[in-house]
């Protein structure tokens, strides 16, 4: 049987090809030890838009995925009941205002003149009652009168005197006008009515809901026609300009990271952006705190946030990405 004899050049090339393959594999798997690689997901600031007042949702045209600007009107509640309460509060305010003006102005001249006439009439009645008493007493002293007649005359005199005293007090009170405390009470009632008006007016204003920030509607929670309670959530606005990449790094890499450290963030489709480390957790997550052995400590991971420049909206919440950070210099 004839056996094939290997060519001498092929015998020399085979080891070289094998060495080149090993070198290529080693170069392909090599990573710079001064570079930290970490993968994670993009997150962004979510703002839950809620209503301060309750009512029926009258107008809510936005849909998930719509972009909104800061202070853009996105919803409106029915304000019929609030407007009716506002009308009642304004009427009560007008009544309280009129009562305050009346107390400050005091009594009318005609009312004072009427009381003065009544005082004069009672004074004349008192003089007549006193004369009748004097006559009854004189007749009794002469023996031609009776004790009952004298006592009846005294009673009429005393009753008339009491009425005159009461009328004079009423006249003095009317001339003096309202007391300072009464004026302050009327002023307080007016202030309370104005406060109710301001409260109802604020409720009318709060029935129009604005977007507190610019962003994208990522969740629509309610629909028009629903009856909402105060504090009910309407939607979620995600501020894409405030986005960050959340990654987890092992304890050996933690000492090589610093706040403000620059990072390169790469998406799965190859797009790259610059970022900076904005947060480094001080405690490991999802691991016991009392682990003491080195083999277990190196398995601890720490949460790190990398702030992103996302003005163009490239990064979306939940998007996977990889961060590449060059080790920070050791502290002296």
Protein described:
- The chain has a six-stranded antiparallel β-barrel.
- The protein has 332 residues and is of the alpha+beta class.
- The chain has seven helices and twelve strands.
- It has helices spanning 8-29, 80-105, 109-142, 147-176, 180-206, 251-254, 294-297, and strands at 35-50, 55-59, 67-68, 73-77, 208-210, 215-220, 227-228, 233-250, 262-267, 272-280, 301-308, 320-326.
- The radius of gyration is 47 Å and the shape is rod-shaped.
Give average pLDDT, whole number.
Answer: 85
For the secondary structure, the number of strands is 12
Unreliably modeled segments? 1-29
Given the helix and strand composition, which structural class is it? Answer: alpha+beta
What sequence of helices (H) and strands (E) makes up the elements?
A: HEEEEHHHHEEEEHEEHEE
For the largest sheet, list the strands in their spatial order: 1-8-11-10-9-12
- What percentage of amino acids are in beta strands? 25-35%
Straight-line N-to-C gap: 76 Å
The oligomeric state is single chain
- Helical amount among residues, as a percent range? 40-55%
Largest pleated sheet: 6 strands, antiparallel, barrel
Instruction: Identify the overall geometry.
Output: rod-shaped
Spatial extent as radius of gyration? 47 Å
Q: What is the overall number of helices?
A: 7
